[in-house]
Amino acid sequence: MRPLLIGKIELKSYKALCRTAYLLPILSLGLGGCGGEVPTAWALNYGTISNVDGAIEGVHVWTFFDENWDLSDSSYVCAVVQTIEGTVDEDVANCPGATRSFEWDLTTVTSDCPPALANDPFLDNGITGGCIGEVPDILIDEVPHAEATEGWYILDEAGSIIPHGFTYPETLDFDETGSDEPWGDGEPHTLSPAWVWAL
User: Fold this and answer.
1) 135-149 pLDDT, tens per residue?
2) Which of 129, 163, 192, 196 has the most crowded Cβ, counting Cβ within 10 A?
3) 82 vs 16, 85, 167, CA distance in Å?
4) CA 122 → CA 8, 83, 188, 199, distances in Å?
């Protein structure tokens, strides 16, 4: 897979969808989904993450769309839901303006994708962690919550740090206030992509 920047029009559509994005794959899984009968062409990955005494945990979701992807229910194909477990890493080298970094293990817990896709090693091992730092210039006009958003960078299996999107306290998606600390113990943070993976 290779990442492509989501266009501004599409990204705004994604922001409108992201409040229910977690519900879409879970609901579809509960109903059995479409079983991956439609070929996949695009993938989004997003999640929530929280830090408790230096250990991180959360949920990470891969959502797949067909070639006519328009971020609507009609282009949804299937999803892979994973748990996140990891640790905060003191080494933030090579991450622009980093305030923290982390390493994680992703473990698939459920999916309505066909086995060949759901069991693709990249989904579990292709992203080994990440860091939180400055929002990249190319994304500065797209931040969802200007005063509380930081840049989300992923660490791939080759050790490269790649700008991928945004992170902010999850409560902001529900018009609630979060902790005064940017990385308060146990406070969930949304990991929101600005890039879509081309399959």
Assistant:
1) 988 888 888 887 888
2) 192
3) 23, 10, 18
4) 27, 15, 25, 12
Chain centroid to CA 188: 13
Structure tokens at 2: 């290779």
pLDDT bucket at 49, cuts 50 / 70 / 90: very high
154's tokens: 């992923």
Distance CA 50, CA 36 (A): 31
| pLDDT higher than 50, residue 18 | no
Distance CA 197, CA 71 (A): 13
Q: What angle do CA 29, 169, 134 make, to 5 degrees?
A: 110
User: What mean pLDDT is predicted for residues 16-21?
Assistant: 35
